[in-house]
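Re-run with default settings, no changes from the original entry. Doing this only to confirm the output is reproducible before filing.
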Amino acid sequence: MIVNDLLLQLRLRLRDEDFDNLRFSNSFLIETLSLWQNKLLLSFDLNIISQKQNLSEKIDFLKLKFEPLKIIAAKFNNINIKLLPLSTALKRKDNIRVLTQIKHNIYKIMPFSQGLLELFYIPKQSLINEESELIIDDSFKNALIYGVLSDVLQIETSNNNLNKASLYTKLYEKECDFCRGLTANLRNGESLITTPYTKI
């Protein structure tokens, strides 16, 4: 999906199509699309990537290339390990290795040991402009649109807009339930069926 295609659909639902006098700027809508795409990535554990680092005395940490939305799992020498806050890891008296975040995007094994550290995580996504391509696929389009509309309509706080925002929130939740069914079906090898868009 391309951002510009979604902007056109959002403006149609918002009745904000007078390009000489727009109520909502493209930059604001793109920022809100980024926010809701990240919410969907988190909700459905989508776009998981991994990164490895051989830990040694010279390099005793792993620095993630991207800001993580969520750490899914960590392995040290192919064995699962827990992620603990630094304050908790420092208080431990046993020798069981754990992963801890030292500072922004930097992770270490405590107590230190040489070996292969691998992290699985969901990177934060930022949409830059109208030509940016979204990470999520078309099956999440309705949920994304409903989420954005539920946010945007709360800015102009008329009773009508607040009622619409509440309705879009319910539609978002309903669409997310449908998407959970879709992802479960895909895991079981069943066919994909998308829902029609609900116009308000």
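Strands lie at 49-55, 62-63, 68-76, 79-80, 83-84, 98-103, 106-110, 115-123. The first helix runs from residue 3 to 14.
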